[in-house]
Protein 1
Amino acid sequence: MNFEHTYAQLPAKFWQRVDPTPVKAPRMLAFNDALAAELGIVREADAADVFAGNVVPPGAQPLAMAYAGHQFGHFVPQLGDGRAILLGELIDRHGQRRDLQLKGAGPTAFSRNGDGRAAIGPVLREYLISEAMHAMGVPTTRSLAAVATGEHVFREGPVPGAVLARVGASHIRVGTFQYFAARRDTDGVRQLADYVIARHYPEAAQADRPYLALLETVARRQAALVAQWQHVGFIHGVMNTDNTTLSGETIDYGPCAFLDDYDPGKVFSSIDRAGRYSFANQPALVRWNVARLAETLLAIIDDDGDAALAAASAVIDAMPGWSAQAWLEGMRAKLGLATNEDGDEALAQSLLEAMHAVAADYTLVLRALCDAADGREPDGLLALPRSPAFDAWRTRWAGRLARDPRTAAERAAAMRAVNPAVIPRNHRVHEALVAAEQGDLVPFEALLAAIRRPYDDGPDVHHYMTPPEPGERVLQTFCGT
Ligand code: AMP
Ligand code: MG
């Protein structure tokens, strides 16, 4: 691995040098060959030792990043990588700089009361769901390797430990800016902003007000990202400012989950008691998070404080429009619409209402519409719900399609490329993780193979398309930290 270290070249207040703590018996659970190839990594005999943190590869400069964050609305001035250690940056085969980080690699200066470790369940969960998001075209950190440590960690009781090797465009969060802003360290904020612009958004440097351009770009990226989450029925569950990236990638898969039946108020996370991060709240909450980023940038956006505030507020005010636009564009594609009409948003909304009324499965309904668009009546697993509202919606949709230029076959093919058949359904993820905790990786591997081709609905993946039986339903998810 040819490491580079641009983040480590920032002043020492941005990070703390720390080596991973070796573990007893590293054993590879999963290795992402395709991602490794992208990064120019060759899997050698000691790969488990390297990705468990027992062997620090030549050229690595392990460090923990400093950050702060609002957790469920409450500001914590120091969080930081309490169990993740950045080994360095790699330039991938597309010329993109990517971080390689070990999550669960042992305590750091930011561990507070935590053990610095991760359990096998949450590690494999992040592996599965991040790879599913990637396969569905949703920007996300990636999973390169999951390694069992041969040690136990103590959560509710003892559980097997693991380390996740995670790859991201960077690991800079809204909370990283908050860390310096909370210390009234304007130079730190500026250095970080310059770093993010150089690394992610070099075009912002050409703008009249580069830090305003940075804010606007991040706001647009985050609005688009959350729209994509909603397109696939994803609920992040912990949208704290320390889990909102500057790169626009999804990060930190904790108690996240996917909708089965469509319910906009749905919450799975056991710690989200007020429903702050419910499915439908996500655009409003990401806007709240970006507003916290805006506050950190005010001092550097413009020397005139009033002008800075007005310009930053305009960005935050524009976010609901960007979110709605991104959502609508994606929904048009999902409904097979190649043209724009004023009534399209209402058409999409009324489909959701019809689904909600009969607790229809979000993923299956949209997938079934691909067949319906082709003039076939979806049946079996894909049979569409029957209700007066649903039937009326179909008539309305058919009328709308009649005004759209594509042939039925073209439309159906385009729809099948944006409406996943296979998502990592909560009950299948749960089954796979329970088996893995007991040493059986077969269900995990089979599920991983299925979610890697989400647009394939052949008979071999019907098991993964099937919604939960009442007894299989996952009602609550846990952080596991
Ligand atoms: P998360 O909920 O994973 O986004 O983490 C929130 C904060 O808690 C971050 O600062 C993490 O580094 C820290 N944290 C989570 N789990 C642990 C752990 N087991 N040991 C130390 N720090 C942790
Ligand atoms: Mg986090």
Protein 2
Amino acid sequence: MMFRATILTLFPEMFPGPLGLSLSGDALARGLWSCEARDIRDHGLGRHRAVDDTPAGGGAGMVLRADVLAAAIDAAASPDDPRPRLLMSPRGKPLTQSRVRALSAGPGVTIVCGRFEGVDERVIEGRDLEEVSIGDYVLSGGEIAALALLDACVRLLPGVMGAAASGDDESFENGLLEYPHYTRPREWEGRAIPDVLLSGDHRKIADWRRAEAVRITCERRPDLLEKRSKKT
Ligand code: SAH
């Protein structure tokens, strides 16, 4: 079963964009996932193919029309399409690694990318869109957020990254940030690689890495440690 991504956007040329390169690009070429970007403007109204209008109640900016967006969604995903329908949105639930893992284990996603001030609230309800945020800051459109979400999902697909991405050690996978990495040269600008990593003692190395992961998480993201202790 292939992971299928369908993206509804006013800028389909932004896809696959950077996901056409490197790991995700190779995976795309190998048919491990598919990426179909559809232009919302194909469903725009009138001679100018209008997709937006002024906000009811007044105020700045423009809002994506519910009727136009619904037509685009209906043309892209039938009601029995098993894929979750996501709307990239700063108001959404913040994306987490566990959500990414769940999405990547499924049939794929349909993603709506907002623009302007956002989308008419009624289409969120009427088409059962799940709002997803990639962080507490505001982008100018949902496309870069969609690329971030897809990148995180695709690297977890079987055969894309091999063992590395399935590792329990990666940041967030076990509720901890990852331990520090080192490689050659053994000494660089007077800085040495910690001795334990060169000891060949795998037990000691594992213990050191675990302690470092806890230390770094404690310093930088104590909220993760709290969540973790609640779980166990
Ligand atoms: N006026 C809106 C922001 C609109 S930004 C507000 O204050 O909430 C335009 C579009 O960019 C949004 O519709 C959404 O699709 C996308 N976007 C912006 N920030 C985002 C974020 N942090 N996560 C996901 N999508 C985001």
